[in-house]
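With this grant's support, the team has encoded backbone shapes as discrete tokens. A representative record is reproduced below.
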Amino acid sequence: MHKVAIPQTVIDRVTARRGKEHVYDDLDPARTALIVVDMQNAFMLPGVAFAEVKAAPEIVPNINTIASALRQAGGTVVWIVTTYDKDIDSEWSTYYRLSTQTNGAKRSAALTKGSKGHAIWSGLEVKDGDPIVEKRRFSAFIQGSSELDKVLKARGIDTVLITGTVTGVCCESTARDAMMLNYKVVMVTDGNAAYSDEDHNRALTGFYSSFGDIMPTERLVGVIGKNAKKQAAE
């Protein structure tokens, strides 16, 4: 598990600007979606992964814990899977110029629908009724990437909890774009995985500074439970 370290100067600056450290601790569970980004064999399974994130399996219990708490409170769990198709070769050619031809081919093969790499990690508790949304870019919200925005709006979702891998790539890209589309966004500090603690903390710090909230699993589950009980009593 990553050792989370957000600079105190950043926490102080954010708290002074927002009025409190965690601005979204009043989230409505029924209007909240847990977004699980790219927890696929292509990023996690040795021998199959084209870019293995060794910390990713460690966050699986936290994702399952949040998913269970949110479902019980009437919220939504959405599984995002990166999917390759041949149109991407031309539509997103700039990305593939940032990799060698060999590495690009490995990525394409691992993320092709129906391949072992494309499948969601077996330890994750995907339930009947959970939407599974395919995406074609790093961000699930950018134009042409996926139907995520449409899926969430159809369910009346106004808050998203971001988990998955890689923290500073697909997870942060999705989180930032969600805020730009007027969602309230929380990145889960121990529910995202990167290649190093440094990469992980850099992404969380940048996001927290200007784009949204960050919380660990234990606090987030507590917020979900507290707010669900409060609403039930009203």
